[in-house]
Specification:
Blueprint lengths: L20 E4 L4 E2 L4 E3 L31 E15 L2 E16 L4 E5 L10 E6 L3 E5 L2 E6 L8 E15 L2 E11 L5 E6 L5 E3 L4 E6 L2 E14 L14 E8 L8 E10 L2 E5 L9 E7 L4 E4 L3 E6 L2 E15 L4 E9 L3 E6 L4 E4 L7 E8 L6 E6 L2 E4 L12 E7 L9 E6 L15 E7 L2 E2 L2 E2 L13 E2 L2 E2 L8 E4 L2 E5 L7 E10 L2 E4 L3 E4 L17 E7 L5 E2 L7 E8 L4 E7 L2
Antiparallel strand pairs: 1-2, 1-23, 3-5, 4-5, 4-15, 5-6, 6-7, 7-8, 8-12, 9-10, 10-11, 10-14, 12-13, 13-15, 14-15, 16-17, 16-28, 17-18, 18-19, 19-20, 20-24, 21-22, 22-23, 22-26, 24-25, 25-28, 26-27, 29-30, 30-37, 31-32, 31-35, 31-38, 33-34, 36-37, 38-39, 38-40, 41-42, 41-43, 43-44
């Protein structure tokens, strides 16, 4: 059974409200307070893919602040960000902010706009009642290159406005424009050391005085000093363990590979949160009772401008008339998750409190409001035994597109799916899965010279690409789905293979290859006989299973044929 690689989700799919959270059974977290705002200036004028627009930074950008007292802050705000060319508005919690207070009275704020992790700062001043930032200030700059205009992305003070739709006098656009009343964003300091943004202004991103769809309002900062759970060095982890979640709503079990290590009566579990390979949670094992107790509210660390906590929760399922779907509503518990251990079967089973349906591991932005990014209903944690084969099953190519019409800097794009099983059906660790790309039969290395976006992720070159790696528009991963955009037009064939790397251990799948038109190479069949299909599944572009095809929506169609072969392709509903 191929499993779904769960991507640690920091996107518009990750939406929640304070208190109880309602969650779609397919894993999409829905907010009743979520709104979408149509912005006239964003469409057509914004910089595409702002989060990963990688280029040389001009001297006006503050990359390294002066020496000073570093203070981490936990933030909450009304956050605005682009999602499918529309502006999404959401309450955000658990935001990770770094401030640097200098002896000369200046203060520096890192990544002032929470959804843009460019690792640059804006400069402010300490005042009698708090701190203030005089804007606009340069946050990021894209150099003039080959005739393209220089793009200076600024942080500015913006205010709400409505613009009449010239095509419909009864309609209007909602947007934010540079304020005419003030050029200063003020934060008032409270006695407990917290800071609250003053007024109804936005600290927003602009280009040429036009709002680019990102910004913060009502930003609240409080001092943060928690330290992540750290396991003692040298522990021996058993990576054969799997968390099984049979309540995910996809009609099959979701499996999460884990590592367990014992230090006396302390138990450390790694791999719980996808995308945070170094994070661990801690429990205590009672050897007489054969019982593992895992406390709630454990801090895992910082991930993409958010502080992540593991919380325990309970919940119940119900049918939501508004959405027309089965949903899960759950709350965070103060109580730990308790699991009984069967030493004969090597299985942990949860103790479900009386009156509750299930218990959950909830991976949450912050430690106050319920704002989850990932969760698992715990059915069992079991050992699948020693790994018999570390070679992953082969990827499945779902499409090749000519994207030079959209952007002349590119030629072709390759889309494919990667799964996390070996041929025996054993589940491989996410943090050990990579993939290789082959161009014209040769193993391809991505360099920062040709792909500057990988440099901002800390790489000069990449041959073995981590399965969850994202770099701008060039290299994209979301769940099982992957996409690569190529610059060179000297391409006849493209291939991909999945790779497992654990220290000196390396396993490789077969290479799957297609030509420029997407036709399979090396005898892989290109045409699916629909009459031979045994099962058909549909997935959205985030890897979530969906009921079928809807008009205008791109989905992944996965067909399991009567002969056991599998075909995957991208389709658009009509």
């Amino acid at each position: 059974m191929k499993r779904k690689l769960l991507l640690f989700c920091l996107s518009a799919l990750t939406l929640a409200t304070a208190g109880a959270v309602t969650v779609n059974r397919e894993g999409e977290i829905r907010s009743r307070k979520h709104q979408k705002v149509l912005n006239a200036s964003v469409k057509g004028s914004r910089v595409s893919n702002l989060k990963n627009a990688i280029a040389a930074r001009t001297p006006g950008v503050i990359v390294t602040p002066p020496a000073g007292e570093r203070q981490m802050m936990l933030g909450s705000s009304m956050t605005f960000y682009l999602y499918y060319d529309e502006v999404a508005q959401d309450e955000s919690y658990g935001l990770a902010y770094e401030t640097v207070f200098c002896e000369d009275g200046t203060v520096y704020l890192k990544n002032p706009i929470s959804m843009l992790d460019w690792n640059t700062y804006i400069k402010g001043e300490v005042t009698e009642d708090g701190i203030e930032f005089t804007l606009p200030q340069l946050l990021y700059s894209i150099e003039n290159d080959e005739g393209y205009p220089t793009v200076d992305l600024m942080v500015d003070v913006l205010e709400y406005t409505e613009i009449e739709n010239p095509n419909d006098p009864d309609d209007y656009y909602v947007t934010f424009i540079p304020s005419e009343e003030t050029r200063v964003i003020k934060f008032v300091k409270e006695e407990d050391g917290t800071y609250m943004m003053e007024g109804d202004y936005m600290m927003g991103l602009t280009w040429g005085d036009e709002w680019q769809g990102y910004g913060e309002m009502q930003l609240y900062l409080e001092p943060f000093s928690a330290t992540p759970v750290v396991a003692p060095a040298g522990l021996d982890y058993d990576y054969s363990y799997i968390l099984a979640d049979e309540l995910n709503g996809w009609d099959h079990t979701v499996y999460r590979p884990l590592g367990l290590a014992y230090d006396g009566d302390d138990v450390y579990i790694s791999g719980m949160a996808s995308g945070m390979s170094g994070a661990v949670i801690k429990g205590t094992f009672d050897r007489q009772a054969n019982q593992l107790t895992i406390p709630s509210n454990q801090f895992l660390g910082e991930y993409y401008n958010h502080f992540i906590f593991m919380m325990t929760g309970d919940g119940y399922s119900y049918y939501d008339e508004d959405w027309g779907e089965t949903m899960i509503s759950f709350d965070v518990m103060d109580e730990p998750i308790v699991l009984n251990f069967d030493p004969v079967k090597n299985v942990f089973k949860p103790v479900v409190p009386e009156g509750k349906e299930n218990v959950y591991f909830i991976y949450n932005f912050g430690n106050t409001a319920t704002y989850p990014c990932e969760y698992y209903a715990v059915d069992r944690i079991y050992s699948q035994g020693p790994l018999t084969d570390c070679a992953p099953i082969a990827p499945e190519i779902i499409g090749v597109s000519d994207i030079s019409i959209i952007d002349p800097d590119y030629s072709l794009s390759l889309e494919f799916m990667i799964y996390g099983d070996n041929k025996e059906g054993q589940i491989l660790r996410d943090d050990c899965i990579y993939y290789n790309i082959f161009i014209n039969g040769e193993l391809y290395t991505f360099t920062s010279e040709e792909y500057p976006s990988i440099a901002d992720e800390g790489y000069e070159s990449l041959t073995d690409i981590p399965v969850f790696f994202n770099a701008g528009d060039d290299i994209f991963a979301s769940g099982n789905y992957h996409g690569i955009a190529f610059h060179s037009d000297d391409i006849e064939t493209m291939g991909v293979r999945a790779v497992y790397i654990d220290g000196d251990q390396r396993g490789e799948s077969d290479i799957v290859t297609v030509d420029r038109e997407g036709n399979p190479v090396d005898g892989i069949k290109a045409i699916v006989d629909d009459s031979a299909q045994r099962m058909v599944e549909y997935f959205d572009m985030f890897g979530n299973r969906v009921d079928g095809i809807q008009p205008g929506v791109v989905v992944i169609k996965r067909s399991v044929n009567k002969d056991g072969s599998v075909d995957v392709k991208k389709v658009i509903g009509r």
